[in-house]
Amino acid sequence: MEETYERACYIERLGLFGCIQCGKCTAGCPLNYLTPFNIRKMVYDVLNSSGEDIASEKHEIWQCTTCSTCSSRCPKQIEPRDVIINLRSILVEDGNIPPQIRDVLKSITINYNPWRLGKEQRAEWCKGLELKDASEADLLYYVGCTPAFDPRLQKVAQAVVKALRKAKVDFGTLGVEEVCCGSEIRRLGDIWSFDALREANTEIFNGYDNIKQIVTTSPHCYNTFKNEYPGLKPEVMHYTQFVSSLIDRGQLVLAKDYRKKVTYHDPCFLGKQNKIYEEPRNILRSVPGIEFVEFDRNRESSLCCEGGGGRMWIEIEDVKERLANIRVRDARDMGVDIIAVACPFCLLTLEDAVKSNDLEGKVQVMDIMEIVAKTLT
Amino acid sequence: MAAKKIGVYICHCGVNIAATVDIEELKRFAATLPRVKSVQNYMYVCSDPGQELIRKDIKEKGLNRIVVAACSPRMHEPTFRNVLKSAGLNPYCLEITNIREQCSWVHHDRHTATEKAKGLLAASVAKAALLEPLEEHEVGVTPTAMVIGGGIAGIQAALDIADTGFKVYLVEKEASIGGHMMQLDKTFPTLDCSACILTPKMADVKNHPNIELLAYSEVIEVKGFVGNFKVTVKKKPRYVIESICNACGQCSPYCPIEIDDAFNERLAKTKALYIPFPQAIPATYVIDPQSCRYLRDKSCRQCEQVCKELQAINLDQKEELVELDIGTIIVATGFDIFDPRQKPELGYGKYENVITGLEFERLVSASGPNQGDIKINGKKPKDVVFVQCVGSRDQTVGNEYCSRVCCMYTAKHAHLVREKLPDAHITIFYIDIRAFGKGFEQFYDRVRGERVYYRRGNVSEIYKKGDKLMVRAEDTLMGKAVEVAADLVVLAVGMEPSKSAKELGKILKLSNSPDKFFLEAHPKLRPVDTGSDGVFLAGCCQGPKDIPDTVAQASAAAAKAVIPLAHGTVKTEAMVSVVQAEACRGCGFCVEACPYAAITLEEKKVRGKKKIVATVNEVLCKSCGACAASCLSGAIQQKSFTDEQILSMIAVIGKKY
Q1: Which end of chain A has less Cβ packing within 10 Å, N or C?
Q2: Alpha-carbon distance A239 to B478, whole Å?
Q3: Closest partner residue to A76 among B347, B395, B482, by Cβ?
Q4: Confidence of residue A39 (pLDDT cuts 50, 70, 90)
């Protein structure tokens, strides 16, 4: 095998010589519940043959949701997830990618969103709400692409606005000037476009001296701002952290009864990757009348919904089951009315699973903020 | 003063130095340095023929200062001092140039490494010319040892010291000695019953005329130095008088408060007035102050009524501080098991049929809460799964090390399951099997032959499916994930240093290695010594060990601890600090800087005038040099590290040669 400089660099950077092939990554991988996807073997293959060959041979690299269960559990603290992103990068650089991914990457660079919708439509969701501009507020509400464009998720963004207003938070938005955070494009392997988005966003955020905090709707935006944007000045929070503290301080009072049996599905980008487990639960437990129950698989053991890592735009073939199906059927067996989520992708994938499992009217999927909005007077 | 004649001896250290430093070039250079009368090189200067080169030169060429360019002085300074002494030269006329750790080991380029070695050597030669002969003094030794920790390591060390005829105090923080070994059922690979081999030793401790046991006690302060420690021990109140209680046990059933039974790993309950286990030494009951009703709110004194005749119960007992004169100390504080709640994916604390290896020991022990029946919720498990490496070899919890006992104790557990549940399906998930000790590989072979399925893979998660647990791992030899159903999962938890040892480490000024266990003075040649003279290590406080290694190390520590006691005297530092009274301002900076409390401010007559001057207690001084560095007027000088000597080194070290 040819030992190129690039190859030596990424093997060193990813720490692949540290791998003891214990398989903890593979057995914890949510994908591996459905497909033979074997991240442990992938690490071994990448270490022992050239990355270019592997990238073009292994089509399953597009199955990974980048949920990071592998990385979080690896006893030698190598990053198997980054091996996948690295392989994807090789294919992106060669232009050797499936057409639907090419379309997403193209849309982000043209429209600054992955949904192939014009950037001028980005503020449609808040029409008539008369939100402040970012230049006039202490706090920036970063809506994110999916809540801005997806009709279902727009309701979540509107619920966030309702709660922030109720709590008299001085916040503004960027309107049509908001730009994709780049989380998904980076995970799809286009690290070059990600760098461009990061520079653009950093310039925008750091340009407003008045903005002290950024609150995001999506854990994906939160994660990338928090962990992949060095030099960002404002403090970044996910809305669950911010709203939980508003409730604790008595600034937001959930007044109305909401007599439902609710469970909570931990998003991987909030839980496993950022260890935010308690704040969403704190919000739900503050809802009067709610009966809160846990999935058996919760927190660090939560099951991925398959919405991350670009998987919103990638169908995997020859797979009958979906993890979201397992999740909604578990919820049905627990007898819950509502699966609460705190992530746009989780909401879409789980709602889809409710439909395909004929559970409409039995189990409902709601964002935590939608529940909060219902309890506000 | 005789003219200085310096000899330089350059060591190759095999290839350790010679591969990176050009020895011939260094030798040529050394010969050009002032006052150097002899230069020699040798493959291993520390060996006997190497030492002989130096001795011969001293005698034949009349050398009076010696420079050895070799490894760190931490390694062989004492060796070469003895060489000088044996040739009739004062041992402090020696200077070591470290061209290994500080040169050849840390550089790649031969040319620049050689240049650096020249600088280092020139500095040493400059200093050597200024070295003065120094005298060591001797002080007496208190012929008594102390062992801290009463597990198998402490017990063995105490017994060995006591057998040499010296008195030894054994301090144990719990109510009984015995430690973790007492909790074990059988021991690998020989399957001896743990209690059967331990309890006689515990009885020996009790009966040995030279051992004084201080159970339920903690060391809270240590002052002094090797041979002359002053140790303060806190004896916690048992509320039961040790000299009266005959362990009849009549009191306990009348105690109204139930508490978790720590000896049985909280699998059972005991009373707030309890004895840890029937064979406890001392055989005395104890009252748990956190839960006793009287000690909390003065509302109950039932036990006193029961023990009316003997009057062994004293609910007003107070803690007692005892100050002891001690010559040497052995630390044997052992380990805590890893808390598997830090690995939430394994479900410990969430599923009651996921237990630790130590809990399994109690479950399977005839003296345990189930009398040795392996039952969970009253039912015998059909499928038993063992998970190796829980909290070991795992950087996510900060434990990079292998705990060395789990592979074998799990094999033993599997054997015990097979013995008691002949039809059980037994699976062991492992990463690597480390069967390195005497008889281990044979035991591993034997257990595999007992229909135990060893599957290579690190368990990633455990979750509930119906009334079974699913243990999910990749069988890496099959290359696919597998799920094994289990009624009982045993986690092979690793070892961590005892939490309570942290404070003791500070008291004794012990260092820790990166794994957080206590650091030995040298990993190979001084494995039971520490950086603190007169303090030795035994057992798992130094790193994970099995019982045979622990016992061997305990005997080694005992032998080492006895040396100063048997010798009767210890040498004090010769390179102590001295105060030039005229220059001293009496500011006391040095008093604060001294970590050994060796300096005091005293009123003295200096040139007929009374003034306050710093005064060094040469017995306490450990020649660290902190005082000299802190002194603003240069009044304190450390012998062999005087300002003049150091400046002479600086003057030449940076020169281009």
Answers
A1: C
A2: 44
A3: B395
A4: very high
Sort out which chain A residues have CB atoms less than 8 A from B461's CB and list them: 27-28, 301
Domain chopping of chain A, boundaries: 5-94, 100-246, 252-374
Report the share of chain B in percent with pLDDT over 90. 94
**CATH code reported for the domain at A252-374:** 3.40.50
- Rounded to the nearest 10°, the torsion over CA B83, B86, B91, B97 is -10
Residues 6+ apart with CB under 8 A from B599: B577, B590, B591, B614, B615, B616, B617, B627
When divided into structural domains, chain B yields a total of 5
Mean pLDDT across the stretch A342-347? 98
**CB nearest A77 (choices: B344, B347, B396):** B396
Return the CATH number at B210. 3.50.50.60
In A, what residues contact B, Cβ < 8 A?
20-29, 32-33, 36, 38, 40-41, 72-77, 296-297, 299-301
Same domain, B388 and B461: yes
For residues A156 and A370, what is the distance between their CA atoms, to the nearest angstrom?
A: 6
Degrees, nearest 5: CA angle B623-B627-B633: 135
Both B346 and B434 in a single domain?
yes
- Shared domain for B232 and B246, answered yes or no, is no
What ipTM goes with this model? 0.90
Q: In this complex, which of A21, A25, A77 lies closest to B395 when CB atoms are compared?
A: A77
pLDDT of the residue at B1: 57
Top-level class of domain A100-246: alpha beta
Q: How many helices (H) and strands (E) does chain B have?
A: 16, 34
B464 contacts chain A (CB < 8 A): yes
Domain A5-94, CATH:
1.10.1060.10
Q: Which residues pair with B537 in a beta bridge?
A: B331
Residue of B389, B459, B470, B474 to mutate, interface with A, max A Cβ within 10 Å? B474
Are residues B15 and B101 located together in one domain of the fold?
yes
